[in-house]
Write a structure and sequence with these properties.
Shape: flat
Oligomer: single chain
Structural class: alpha+beta
Helix content: 40-55%
Distance between the termini: 47 Å
Radius of gyration: 24 Å
Largest sheet: 4 strands, antiparallel
Number of helices: 12
Strand content: 5-15%
Amino acid sequence: MSLFREIQEAIVDSDTELTPVLLKLRLLADRLGSHQLEEWVKYESEGYPSGVDVPEYRQIEMSYTGSFHNIAWKADHQPIPTYLIEKYCGDSWTKYKVRESIGAIDGMVRKMEDGGRLGIDASNLILKLQGKIYKDMNCTSVEATFSEVALREIQNIVRGRALELTMKLEKEVPDVVEVTIGKSLDTDPGTANKVEQVIHTAVYGSNAVVVSGSAHSNVTINNSPGDLSSLRDELVNAGIPHDSAEEFSQLVSIESADGKGKPFGEKTIEWLKNNLPAVANGAWGITVSVATKILEDAARKYYGLD
């Protein structure tokens, strides 16, 4: 049986845990030469580091309870509306970014099945909520938990996207079914771009903008901070068509970084969403992951982030 068929068989077997499936997917990514897929599988199987954005499906709703008392009354484990947590403590407390690996999530689900509870340390909210929930009662503790259902949804989404990926790959690149542990897919530039586009839409969604790591790009970007001409010229030298390089450069020059160390503003992100599908179809002669990395590096240097 080919590696591709082994992966499909494991995905649809509900008794098979996701970790071994992801290991095979990572090997498939290597055999396809897909850095996008390899990166996604790596993060899902090893966990998302603090400096990496967590996909939306890994951001889960938190539930809060608190204990309150005064000289005459005591109210333990009272539900606190999410609206009030967001109002007084900020929206970062209402959603938890699950950075743990799929294997760790499996363990968390098993713990909850055995009656355990999982959550985060919310003791810092005690002072923030004093006098905000019950006016005449002191807040003595705050507990933040998340549900087993939310964790199972992450498992289901990862399994579903892996299955969708294999189905789309088989449809768009039929030769992928012949890939084995010892045999890679022979790809020309058109096939390679088709593979990247399938992975981009199946794994990240059709509207996502994916920026891959620089370890897989041999192109070095050396434009000067704040120099628009240098930015445009570096993009052209790196293989970006002149018109596209000009459009991108103009957008970067009128916007600014998002304030969190990320180099793309709203208009630039919208431009990327509109142009990357054509890139995936071979319009620039490079893959989506390489193109986005070139653009990111150039924008970062323009803003002086590197």
